[in-house]
Structures are given as C-alpha cells and as structure tokens.
Amino acid sequence: MALPISVVPAGEGWAVRSPAFENDMFFQGGAKAETTARRLADQYARAGIAAEVNVFLRDGALAGSFRHPAMEMELSAA
Fold first, then answer.
1. Measured between alpha carbons, how far is 54 from 14 in angstroms, rounded to an integer?
2. Over the stretch 42-76, which tens digit does the pLDDT of each residue have?
3. pLDDT in tens, 23-46
4. For labeling, which of 8, 50, 51, 69 is most exposed (least CB within 10 Å)?
C-alpha cells in the first residue's frame, strides 16, 4: 500500500498532510502545496517507500492522483 499524501484546502490557503508526518504544512497557493507534496512523494519513493499524492479541490472533489512507485535501492560494491 502506498503512503498517502494529500493536498487539501485549508482556510484561504492549502495544506499538505500525511500520516508520515505529525503536522500539516500550510501554503498560500495550491501550486506550491502540490509541488511540495510531489517532491515529498518522490523522496519517499527514492527511499523505497511507494507514495501517492491526492490533490483535492475546494469543493472536496479529487482533482488528481499521482503515484510514485518505490524505487529499488542499488547496493554498490566497495
């Protein structure tokens, strides 16, 4: 199961939330919130944890969903 990361309306701004972190992150613009959520999901994927970003509109409708499959870690021979 992929780690959920959501972009949701929060007052006059937007929030990025996930069970992976304790506090929501707040942004004035939705684009910045979505960019941050997708970057976080990419970081989790690079660490071997699948993540899925769900972006919601102000009316609560799902605007888009972006999957970030877990990447396999390569071990280098030293």
1. 13
2. 999 999 999 999 999 999 999 999 999 999 766 55
3. 999 999 999 999 999 999 999 999
4. 69
At 59, which amino acid appears? D
- The dihedral built from the CA positions of residue 71, 63, 28 and 7, taken in this order, carries a sign that is negative
Q: Which tokens sit at 30? A: 């939705």
H/E element holding 17?
strand 13-17
- Indicate the pairing of strand 51-56 with strand 25-27: unpaired
CA distances for 44 relative to 26, 38, 65, angstroms: 20, 10, 16
Pairing of strands 51-56, 13-17: unpaired
Tokens representing 17? 């939330």
The domain locations on the chain are 8-68
Q: How far is CA 54 from CA 25, 50, 59, 73, 76, in A?
A: 15, 13, 14, 25, 34
